[in-house]
């Protein structure tokens, strides 16, 4: 007895946990600076922590109505109906729901190269095949409708990432519209806005007011500091909003996650501090690191260190964990998440000794 043929599938390579690295190096986790997973350097939103603690004695019961409350709150925020908000176990879970709702055997999807690995993985899990469009280093990772449409061949989902991980580039709203116009009616253009809070550009959820072929992905993992709770969502076109009830896993987001999410949305002070810290760190890294970098609209900076694998490994031995971007299809670079003032300064000092 065996699983089905999974030879096309690869395991998701998450950034390594701080405890795991500390154990390996024989160091105290408090002595490590982890800037490899684009987590929030300030921790979780304090109001979310209060909500989690308050709800803890009730976790033996099945979820109540917080998912409905959160969907309503998010719908208000994005100018859509609650049915158009597909809550999930992180943005990753929302990607799976989109794959489940859209893909049939034989369908294909179009993903960016370099890009976030889970787009392709989710499509393959759902019997889709994967084609790529380039985001070229020679163009400073600029994204354009022209390149996407040049590589488009009737795929069912076109994944766009803005801000883009791991490069930090953005795609213009006009380009998203051009892509949606230039693709078949049955093609969804999905704008992944996991990092949009850190960008000066507004969210593109308002495109859904006029379009039936665009969806937007959002997460509480980054700006709201709730990566461990796993809470994300897709905002989908009105016409197929009711598919959610037919495809979602029961209790798609936990009661704790939904309560924390609702509280985090109220924590404006925390969001402000988060954005301020990230803006400071981006400027500090770009001004101080002894190698070329690219402008970033996310909470991270891509740095051209020459040999990303060697530099990330050497930095780790000094207690600084950054992300080698080879696994994104981008060798030669590391991605540094914006840390606290202290952590960022220490990380850059160690990296500069290695460069
Ligand atoms: N999209 C992008 C571009 C990401 O970098 C991430 C996080 N690694 C996600 C989506 C998913 O994040 P999460 O599942 O934590 O919401």
Automatic annotation (TrEMBL):
<dbReference type="InterPro" id="IPR050106">
    <property type="entry name" value="HistidinolP_aminotransfase"/>
</dbReference>
<dbReference type="InterPro" id="IPR005861">
    <property type="entry name" value="HisP_aminotrans"/>
</dbReference>
<dbReference type="GO" id="GO:0000105">
    <property type="term" value="P:L-histidine biosynthetic process"/>
</dbReference>
<keyword id="KW-0663">Pyridoxal phosphate</keyword>
<dbReference type="InterPro" id="IPR001917">
    <property type="entry name" value="Aminotrans_II_pyridoxalP_BS"/>
</dbReference>
<dbReference type="GO" id="GO:0030170">
    <property type="term" value="F:pyridoxal phosphate binding"/>
</dbReference>
<dbReference type="InterPro" id="IPR015424">
    <property type="entry name" value="PyrdxlP-dep_Trfase"/>
</dbReference>
<feature type="modified residue" description="N6-(pyridoxal phosphate)lysine">
    <location>
        <position position="222"/>
    </location>
</feature>
<keyword id="KW-0032">Aminotransferase</keyword>
<keyword id="KW-0028">Amino-acid biosynthesis</keyword>
<dbReference type="InterPro" id="IPR004839">
    <property type="entry name" value="Aminotransferase_I/II_large"/>
</dbReference>
<keyword id="KW-0808">Transferase</keyword>
<dbReference type="InterPro" id="IPR015421">
    <property type="entry name" value="PyrdxlP-dep_Trfase_major"/>
</dbReference>
<dbReference type="GO" id="GO:0004400">
    <property type="term" value="F:histidinol-phosphate transaminase activity"/>
</dbReference>
<keyword id="KW-0368">Histidine biosynthesis</keyword>
<dbReference type="InterPro" id="IPR015422">
    <property type="entry name" value="PyrdxlP-dep_Trfase_small"/>
</dbReference>
<comment type="similarity">
    <text>Belongs to the class-II pyridoxal-phosphate-dependent aminotransferase family. Histidinol-phosphate aminotransferase subfamily.</text>
</comment>
<feature type="domain" description="Aminotransferase class I/classII large">
    <location>
        <begin position="31"/>
        <end position="350"/>
    </location>
</feature>
<protein>
    <recommendedName>
        <fullName>Histidinol-phosphate aminotransferase</fullName>
        <ecNumber>2.6.1.9</ecNumber>
    </recommendedName>
</protein>
<comment type="pathway">
    <text>Amino-acid biosynthesis; L-histidine biosynthesis; L-histidine from 5-phospho-alpha-D-ribose 1-diphosphate: step 7/9.</text>
</comment>
<dbReference type="Pfam" id="PF00155">
    <property type="entry name" value="Aminotran_1_2"/>
</dbReference>
């Amino acid at each position: 007895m065996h699983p089905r043929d999974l030879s096309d599938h690869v395991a998701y390579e998450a950034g390594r946990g701080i405890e795991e690295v500390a154990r390996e190096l024989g160091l105290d986790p408090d002595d490590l600076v982890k800037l490899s997973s684009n987590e929030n350097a300030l921790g979780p939103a304090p109001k979310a922590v209060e909500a989690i603690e308050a709800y803890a004695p009730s976790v033996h019961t099945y979820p109540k109505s917080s998912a409905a409350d959160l969907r309503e709150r998010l719908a208000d925020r994005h100018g859509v109906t609650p049915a158009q908000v597909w809550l999930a176990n992180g943005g990753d879970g929302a990607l799976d729901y989109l794959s489940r709702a859209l893909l049939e055997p034989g369908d294909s999807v179009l993903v960016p190269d370099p890009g976030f690995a889970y787009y392709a993985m989710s499509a393959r899990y759902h019997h889709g095949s994967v084609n790529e469009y380039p985001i070229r280093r020679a163009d400073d990772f600029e994204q354009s409708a022209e390149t996407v449409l040049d590589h488009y061949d009737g795929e069912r989902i076109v994944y766009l990432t803005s801000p883009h991980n791991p490069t930090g580039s953005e795609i213009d709203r006009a380009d998203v519209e051009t892509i949606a116009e230039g693709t078949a009616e049955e093609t969804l253009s999905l704008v992944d806005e996991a990092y949009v809070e850190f960008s000066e550009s507004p969210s593109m959820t308002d495109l859904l007011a006029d379009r039936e072929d665009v969806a937007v992905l959002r997460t509480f993992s980054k700006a709201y500091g709730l990566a461990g709770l796993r809470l994300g969502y897709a905002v989908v076109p009105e016409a197929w909003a009711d598919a959610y009830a037919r495809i979602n896993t029961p209790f798609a987001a936990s009661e704790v996650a939904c309560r924390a999410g609702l509280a985090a949305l109220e924590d404006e002070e925390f969001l402000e501090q988060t954005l301020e810290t990230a803006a400071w760190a981006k400027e500090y890294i770009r001004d101080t690191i002894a190698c070329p970098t690219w402008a970033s609209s996310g909470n991270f900076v891509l740095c051209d260190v020459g040999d990303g694998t060697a530099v990330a490994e050497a930095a780790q031995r000094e207690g600084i964990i950054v992300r080698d971007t080879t696994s994104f299809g981008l060798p030669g670079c590391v991605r540094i998440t914006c840390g606290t003032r202290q952590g960022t300064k220490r990380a850059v000092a160690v990296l500069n000794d290695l460069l």
